[in-house]
Amino acid sequence: MCRTIEEDAPAVDHHVDMSSSTSGDLNLIPPLNFAMVDNGIFRSGLPDSANFSFLQTLQLTSI
Questions:
Q1: Distance from first CA to last CA of the chain, Å, rounded?
Q2: Theoretical Cys-Cys bridge with 51: which of 8, 33, 47, 63, CB 3.0 to 4.6 Å?
Q3: What is the pLDDT of residue 27?
């Protein structure tokens, strides 16, 4: 028998507000094959130094 497990996860906004960005903030480059798997769960290829600014905007707890 299978049951559905329901959890009340806190709402997390993963969108970045670019309206108040300066020109230096526009160099956000995601890692190769970056995608959202589920709410708050992402996957990608191995990031390099060019991707760090983008990853910091996601406020990740682990990689």
A1: 34
A2: 47
A3: 85
Record the pTM. 0.57
Name residue 43's beta-bridge partners.
35
Contacts 24+ apart (CB under 8 A), 21-28: 25/53, 27/53, 28/53, 28/54, 28/57
Residue 48's nearest CA partner among 63, 59, 38, 36 is 63
Cα–Cα dist 19/63, whole Å: 28
The closest of 58, 50, 59, 56 to 32, measured between CA atoms, is: 50
Residue 55 parent element (H or E): helix 52-57
> Residue 35's CB: how many other CB atoms inside 10 A?
10
